[in-house]
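Notebook, student rotation project (T.W.).
Task set for the rotation: take a protein with a known small-molecule partner, predict the structure of the complex, and write up what can be learned from the model alone. Partner molecule chosen: S-adenosylmethionine. Sequence and SMILES entered below by T.W., checked by me.
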Amino acid sequence: MATRASRPLGVVTRGTTNPNRLRRVDNWIVETYADVLRAAPDPLVVDLGYGATPVTAVELRARLAAGVRADVRVVGLEIDPVRVADAQPAADPPGLTFARGGFELAGHRPALVRAFNVLRQYDESEVAGAWATITTGLAPGGLLVEGTCDELGRLGGWVLLDATGPRSLTLAARLATLDSPAELAERLPKALIHRNVPGEPIHDLIRALDDAWRAAASYAPFGPRQRWLHTVAAVRAQGWPILNHPRRWRLGELTLPWPTIAPTQPRPTPR
Ligand SMILES: C[S@@+](CC[C@H](N)C(=O)[O-])C[C@H]1O[C@@H](n2cnc3c(N)ncnc32)[C@H](O)[C@@H]1O
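Predicted structure of the complex:
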């Protein structure tokens, strides 16, 4: 339940969305952080900035209800009141509702917030403030998953945060259509997308992945999955502290602790 009405924090941005676009991050949430939702006294999830149609909020509810707990309640929050009105026919209370809200989460205290392709259209200088506002609104032990993906959900990257700040970065690709890991640079979360420049750790990581991918070319005849598995193993052998299990690598994923790839240099000129 919302506890207070306040002016939504943020600005209306492009509403581009697509069915199934967020399947990778949704499946990762179900697989990796189901415990947080199962343990939550109130299984409340906010889909922040669902866009011009509520399709990805509908899908999130379905995936969490099937994979984590049937009594999950997803609230789609949008800062654009027209999009809130347009989403109402898709509501299915109490499991799925739509309301106006911004980074302040409209007074909700969710166990999980998914905010995808929202900060991409803000300036990098606004990211830390948005993260802080959202994580302040989480229930105790709650999590924020904030990231970016392409229109079809083939390439993406997301940051996991809790009340203490960012914890990890996950990169994910549809291996069957991946030409090289360098493509992941185009869909980094806003906090990193302008940091793929020499001297920044994320640049070193992308370059290490790309080099390892080239070195693993002999595995290409066995399929892109084999090539990716050898790529990630090689990068780990170089000392990158890959957090996730090889069974997630098989899906085209890679997770690292945030401090490993956090920006180290002053912010570039705003754009
Ligand atoms: C590109 S759409 C993303 C839709 C969907 N999440 C997806 O990934 O396909 C971004 C949406 O975020 C909304 N938005 C931007 N800032 C917001 C904020 N502070 N709070 C809530 N919604 C916001 C915009 O109005 C827009 O509809």
